[in-house]
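WARN no homologs supplied; continuing
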Amino acid sequence: METQALVKVLVVEDSITTRRFLVNLVNNTPDLMVCGEASNGLEAIQMVEQLKPHVVSMDIQMPRMDGIEATKQIMAIKPTPVVVASAGLGQKEVDFAMLAIEAGALAAIEKPSGSPQDKAKRDEFLQLLRLMARVRVIRRNPNFSPPVSLPSPIKVNLKSSPELIVIGASAGGPGTLAQILGKLPENFPIPILVVQHLSADFVPGFADWLSRRCKMRVRIPIQGDVPSAGEIWIAPGGKHILLSADRRVMLHSDKGNQRHQPSIDILFESASNVFGQHAIGILLTGMGDDGAEGLEMLYKRGARTIAQDEATCVVFGMPAAAIERQAAEYVLPVHQISTALLDLVGYHRLNSHL
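OK structure emitted
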């Protein structure tokens, strides 16, 4: 019988006690093994090159070089999946985690502990290492600036003006969303609903982090809210978000047969049913295929649809699945998507009198 290869994990952690705990946790898991231990970012970069781990568990605040800079260098020198192991869920820690994701990390999770009440967090941490180890990441030049260019010609349909934008993102999504949504004006004329795959505990901190990068208001909706212009709503962790026939937000705790909760497909299908051709659907960087089927539903109902292109994706999984289904009307690099949205909603035409 052929033995399954173990997932090699590099544990980067400056606290000796915490590092010992994480190393033992990983090594006591049958399909995982620690291939190396680093106490700072400089050691991490060297070990990634020497040991070629499948995935890195990355601390953030460390001496000599922090985890943000280490992640940036790893993605430029030897691209390897990085999972941020955050010291906590305070806003400062979440901000650091989001900066690491902007630098190229795929996901963030709070460090588990050895307490009996923390078993679920330990299991989630180990499962995240397994999942991220399978992702093919691309080389990222830290000094790269995208060329200034005009987006592909956007055809505006004056007969079916958009009334809602729905966006789905996964691995690499926080930084991508900040790039796109941060360029939209405060008086953007329609609401935006976002599903970002993220550990549920990080969602409130992520929403706060994103709000400081956007002119539009960012918040997490509650049951019964009605989306309004000038607002970006982030789906709460651990609940599906969809829209009722009277265009109110509904939150469902039942995961059903979906792989993710919240599910991008469920939001997109709901937007297709309620808004039809008056919606815009956008599928961004992420592993797997969540959102591809939903984007296809939107496209077939006459909605405008956009998929992020391969060159600017951290992980070209979800957009690729949508493109394969021929569900994307436009395939655009991240730096062109905000301009495309302004064109699609007729922002300059609506504000020409100002």
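Confidence is low (pLDDT under 50) at residues 147-151.
OK
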